[in-house]
Amino acid sequence: MLIGYLERGVLAGSIAGIVYGIYMTVVANPLIGYMETVAEEATHGAHAHSASDHAHAAGEHAHAVSEATTAAVSIGSGVLWGILLGGIFALAFYFLEPALPGRKYVKSYVLAGASFLTISVAPWLVLPPATPAAEKAFDPTLRIGLYIGLMAVGAVVAAASIEGYKRVSIRSRPLGIVAATIPIGALVATAVLAAPTVVDSGAMSASLVTAFRGLTVLSQAALWAIVASCFSWLQTRANVRSATERRNDLLTSP
Amino acid sequence: MTAETIHDRLGTARDDLTTAQLLTVFAFVAASTFALLFVQEPLVHDSMHNFRHAVGVVCH
User: Fold this and answer.
1) Which among B5, B12, B58 has CB closest to A147?
2) What pTM does this model have?
3) Taking the CA atoms of chain B, what radius of gyration do you get in angstroms?
4) Which residues of B touch A64 (CB under 8 A)?
5) Are A38 and A208 in contact (CB under 8 A)?
6) Residue A170: domain span
7) Are the CB atoms for A63 and B49 separated by under 8 Å?
8) How many domains, chain A?
9) Chain A residues close to B17, C-beta within 8 Å
10) Model confidence over A90-105: pLDDT tens digits?
11) Where does residue A63 rank: exposed (0-12), middle (13-18), buried (19+ CB within 10 A)?
12) Would the pLDDT of A180 be above 80?
């Protein structure tokens, strides 16, 4: 049964991953290339006549591989990313399905939303998606630690939100939805008020940075939405039914 | 008869699969995560540079 879920999750993830790979090819790769050129020109302009500064700037942007390789591998990684998220989603869904609120279609969207909050939104509140060539706050080890810590916070908030909905919606569904938004609102408010602005986007114009972040957020949200919808469609096709539904069937048709 | 719980699902997974199979599944997930997000080997790391930017993960 677990393997069946995993198969469908990986398949849903592959579909989402291919869509994401197309997005990488058509939008993200050219955009990141453009933004890197903009950033590099700004750096070169500032240090135009100093040979040592120039070498320093070139060193910062030097890569071990060609741009074509970066583009191709990034597209492939995009596909793998979809497969990985689909697989993790299916494993989590298998174990958590009984605890998720809603009917079976709703359940997979609830879990996808919770995953998006955990893996992306919560960490981004403190460490927003980095624009190319931006100054990075903290050293990599601290950043990774912080990111993982924030994922844990995101998971707790998602769980609190779902639990709140389940408790309150017994009495009234609209109140349940209100209860579900409280932990998320609290997280966002805390992050906005307490977290320092840690990324300096350098020479990049503010609107370009906003557009890039907006695209990142939307593309990840879309990835999760595709995973959830394909997964629930595949589940229906495979005719997976929960123990509750089987029992109800037995009760209604003796 | 009560509705299915998370505990039941854990039980089903243990009954259906051997420990080795479960370990394989989780090891595979861990390996893919590591390879995509944390490998610092310059060739691999650099060639996935655009990907990490687009996904918005921290170690880019």
Assistant:
1) B58
2) 0.84
3) 18
4) 42-43, 45-47
5) yes
6) 2-42+57-252
7) yes
8) 1
9) 2-3
10) 999 999 998 998 887 8
11) middle
12) yes
